[in-house]
Specification:
By secondary structure, the protein is α+β, with helices and mostly antiparallel strands. Helix content is 20%, strand content 44%. The protein is built from two helices and six strands; from the N terminus they run βαββββαβ. It has a six-stranded antiparallel beta sheet with strand order 2-3-4-5-1-6, with helices on one face.
């Protein structure tokens, strides 16, 4: 499993359900962004073929890349986020009145 970075309103991302970004909040925010599209599942390519993962995904399309922002348990998570993705997460967090936090609790 790769390192994850989270957009959360909680003091620590693991407590996101206590002070959640609601799915409706996320949908309303991403609906106004032309560089995002919603998908109810994500198809991942594996060495054994493709695998579908259900959930609420907001796919960021930028510079030929597609980065899934996954809504789950009151937060929005990006797996393996690089500095470019973290920058976009910070923009979203600001508008959602939230913070960007890594798995180990560090604030970006």
């Amino acid at each position: 499993m790769s390192y994850e970075v989270h957009i959360t309103r909680a003091d620590h991302w693991s407590n996101s359900a206590e002070k959640p970004i609601t799915l409706k909040d996320a949908q309303n925010y991403f609906a106004t962004k032309t560089d995002f599209e919603y998908r109810p599942e994500l198809l991942q390519q594996t060495p054994f073929g493709s695998m579908a993962m259900g959930g609420d995904f907001f796919i960021w399309k930028s510079e030929g890349m597609k980065v899934p922002f996954r809504y789950q348990e009151g937060r929005i998570t990006v797996s393996g986020a690089d500095d470019f993705a973290i920058g976009r997460m910070k923009e979203a967090a600001h508008e959602l009145k939230a913070i960007v936090q890594g798995d180990e609790g560090e604030i970006y």
